[in-house]
Amino acid sequence: MNKNKKFLLYGHGGSHNHGAEAIIRTTVEIIKNNYPNSKIILSTHFKEQDVEFGIDVDEYCERDMYYVELAKSSHVKGKYDNDIYKSTIDKIDKNTVCLSVGGDNYCYDNWRRWRVIHEKAIETGAKSILWSCSIEPSMMDKEMLDTLRTHHAITARENITYNSLKEHGLNNVVLCSDVAFALMPQGIALPDNFVENNTVGINISPLVVRREAKPGIILENIINLIKYIIENTNMNVALIPHVVMSMDNDYALLKEIYDRFNSCRICLISDKLNASQYKYVISKCRVGVFARTHATIAAYSSGIPCIAIGYSVKAVGIGHDLGVGDYVMGLDKFLDKFNLCTMFKTLIKDEKIFSYKLKKIMDTYVENSRNYEVINALR
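-> structure tokens emitted (379 positions)
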């Protein structure tokens, strides 16, 4: 095995998205464990965020912001993609292994921006892998499928994506677990009013609020759930951010919720933690309600029963694969202001069964994030 390789990780939006950070951390660990003398380059939208959180790579590539600004005023989608990512494209040679690491980058209309990097890899004779991904089946039109077929490997992190790709005749697909399941927690001091094993972790995101079927229904459900917990149980509540990007900030939304209550039983977790520290906080909860997929993954991999507020294939697919799909609550399920409370009561009733299911499967499931086929794809 050639231990001296060059890996280019691209499609990363920055480590203030701690789900993206978790994917990068565990991917870098896999590479270093299997190719200890390799060079790792990270193409990122926000280098300063990755430096802030100590991402252990050898080199960074950044966007050309001049062309980013030009693209904003262009009526032609993708016109400047090659210029925006020129510094990334210039790093590719025939000895490069290119990993598209965004997780769900092919779930959105702007997926073509990543194609320019992939096509350069193919043109140069480099290896191109779509890594630890989910793809909405409804997005799989001929144009996308033609691009996906030219990847050397696609590691799909749940069965919905995997089965859909196989049904379309793709033979370059490997089923694995999201690499972030293997993220190790990092201990920190918890707030005084965080009661270990008797606190409900809650994460809500501006993303699900923007996509809600009925204006205000998500926040109304969260508020009513917190009221129910405080008034009817002895559990405390921890509001846990997981993405703190300026344009998509969980902390700001959670702070609004926190400020509505005057209760010593509610704490707001800092927005300065890294992904491993957030996983530690989540691992000390009793149960959780999480909108961010990687907050949910932190709970699942720690054996913590939780409700996933699911807005895409990744939440539904992962929950189904773990046998806890009944606790993935799609946005279409928020029909009145007490739907979440009703689901929470059922979660508490089934808490031990849920936890048992997770603990029974989790060692194997985590190991599957770096199974032989996954490691072989990096060769």
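The radius of gyration is 21 Å.
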